[in-house]
């Protein structure tokens, strides 16, 4: 049995399969996910686990090169949760629309659904390499 790190088998496996340039999402509990995209549903009840708890859990597991958030998240807690934990450039696009955040969910490897209820607590991360 594991004694540390991510204990959720589905999440641990999904993280281990990520490669350079792969994208994945950490989302609030309400983000609509396109059909065919794997959802790793960690939500238990509203607010559990928090978006920031999941960010903390994955932080030491991955090399990330950038993030993407909705422009509506600028100046909010979700933006602070991401930028305070990860030293990477974050870009912003409108939440909705033809080239918005939701449209960019197509092609992500998976979505980690949290129990977060704070609006716009969603980020698309792109993986980097450790060398």
From TrEMBL:
Single GO molecular function: D-ribose pyranase activity
Reaction equations catalysed: beta-D-ribopyranose = beta-D-ribofuranose
EC number: 5.4.99.62
GO CC annotation terms, alphabetical: cytosol
RNA-binding is among the record's keywords: no
EC category: isomerase
Any GO BP: D-ribose catabolic process
Keyword entries, A-Z: Carbohydrate metabolism, Cytoplasm, Isomerase
InterPro entries cross-referenced by the UniProt entry: D-ribose_pyranase, RbsD-like_sf, RbsD_FucU
Gene3D superfamilies: RbsD-like domain
PANTHER family linked: D-RIBOSE PYRANASE
Protein name: D-ribose pyranase
